[in-house]
DUF6350 family protein (Streptomyces narbonensis), 523 residues
Amino acid sequence: MTHLTEHPLVQGGRSAALATACVRGGVAAGLGLGALAVLVTAAWISSPFAEGPGGALHAAAGLWLLAHGVDLVRTDTLSGLPAPLGVVPMLVAVLPVWLVHRAARDTLDPGDDSDRPRPSPGGAVAAVAGGYLMVGAVVVVYSESGPLPAELISAGFWLPAVVFGAAGAGVWTALGRPLPVRRQAAAALRAAGLGLVTLCGGGAVLAAVSLAWHAGEAQASLAGLAGEWSGRVAVVLLVLALLPNAAVWGAAYGLGPGFTLGTGALATPLGLVGDPAVPPFPLLAALPAEGRGTWTHWVAAAVPLAATVVQGWRVGRTAPGRPARDAALTALAAAWGCGAVVAVLAAAAGGPLGSGRLSAFGPVWWQAGAATVLWGACVGVPTALAVRAWGRRALRPKPLPLPAPAPANADAAASATTPATASVGAGAGAGAAAGFGEPFDLETQPAAAPDAAGSGSAPGAVRGAGQATRSTGKPDHPGIPAATAKAAAPALDLDLDDDPGYEPYDYLPAAWESSPPPPDPET
């Protein structure tokens, strides 16, 4: 008997899924490189100083590598010495990062085809990153023959780090963005993200206000860099690509450490010290003037203050029922998480612009990260504890009002209520609570006629709830006189004598009333 063994590749198993993921990574790299090549080629066609298509392709390859954080080396300098270039245009970096993210996400997301085999999360990250890095290695080799070759050590570190990070984020998105199981860790991550968005948004506002304040200098710088329209369009596009960098610079300025403007020059809210080496560029026209800082510069501290307050508020809202120690540790963990991301952004936003004095330009990554953690510890932790304390105060139950004490001079008749009267009151209250309507008010009913003793039944008297005497005229409770019972529970005359369908058994005691005692055998 022959058994047929189906190969998983023919079957469309995991091997085929990994191969598809690898192809997706390569296609994502090709799309990003092609988009930048089209943009650079359009600028090359419109430029009157175009040298050839090879230079445009090499420029596109260098820009693609620079978007991944890879440092480039300029060889065509006036001095003839190679000059490094390491400032990442962060807006351009969004394109390759998003392409890798989408490729990894689509690898694990089945979409409409739920029967399609999928690799494991780790396999998806490795396959997509592997396909992307194969194209990246080709681009690095190609850039070595152009005017902007890649620095190999930087390419070997930053290119895989960015690709694996974006692929991991895509897999995390495909899995539904799960957060850590521990509640404190999830709260710290959410608070860190909210604080990071507030900090970068505030930095963008600072940069925009400063650029609007120095609009004249920025316009003069733009006119001096390029005289023809094609050159000005290229400079404007470069300014747009560096706008996120300006936001990070503004955040670092508000945090306190500021940023360097060449070796030996530092700009902080306290003032600009040293001799800055600032090349002519529209965005750099927004830098603060030299000298001691004034209140207009000190206002920048409101940005990290607002970010850490929001961060602590987010932690405190989720910790009203937890101990104060857990809330403080959660706020401190959020500060560390936000500081780590700020350090990475500061490292990408700055870097060398050349050799010599231009070898250090922008915020220092470790100073920006440490300042973020310090702000979070000094402002975020107390804010979280204060919000937690306020939340616990709001959750504290209010004391219930105490019942009023009974009056000392209570009616003696109420204290001497007969058991039959108590039964009437209990039955009426239960009937009203069960929805049977309001009970009869015995005091407002007309006086009943005298009981007809010995007649066997009293047609004019209704056996109501808790009636004191039966139709035989004997009291329900032998220990209670009949006169007292009649006074406590008078009969109700409802004029039922004229009703031919009336039967005494239509008015039996209700379920909540005490049943009458058995008849006396002596009678």
